[in-house]
Amino acid sequence: MEQKTELVKNLISNARIVLTLDAKESEFRADLTKTDFKILDQLLKNPREKIDSISKSTMLSTKTVTRTIEKFEKNPAIQFTIIYDPRKLEKFVAFAVLAMVQNDIKKLKKI
Predict the structure, then answer these.
(1) Which of 27, 33, 41, 52 is deepest in the core (most CB within 10 A)?
(2) How far apart are CA 71 and CA 65, in angstroms?
(3) How many angstroms separate the CA atoms of 69 and 64, rounded?
(4) Which SUPFAM superfamilies has this protein been placed in (predicted)?
């Protein structure tokens, strides 16, 4: 248990929280093994890392790495997303528009 706790601490130290969800009762279990955490750690360091490279750095077979990533893809507890750095998007300004419509859409079009 101590090893898993330490692995989680290491994973979280380099992570950026993108989305949090309030899960009531879960129908799935996120039983992650030491192998899973090793691979997750490598993917957090470099999400584009090739399976061969992950295999070498974790000292696991490419077959194990491939199966573990496939397991992650099927596990609803693990989500893949894109994180962009707006400072590196030259000539573009990143923004979001949130709108809530409570009335008639025709009135909104006039605005």
Answers:
(1) 41
(2) 10
(3) 9
(4) Winged helix' DNA-binding domain
Residue 31 has pLDDT above 80, yes or no: no
Its pTM stands at: 0.53
Give the pLDDT confidence score for residue 57 in this predicted structure: 95
Residue 48 CA to residue 66 CA, distance in Å, equals 14
What is the pLDDT averaged over residues 64-89?
83
Q: Are 2 and 32 in contact (CB under 8 A)?
A: no
pLDDT over 80 (residue 9): no
Two structure tokens written together for 25:
């009762």
Query: Please, are residues 19 and 81 in contact by the beta-carbon 8 Å criterion?
Result: yes
Domain ranges of the chain: 2-85
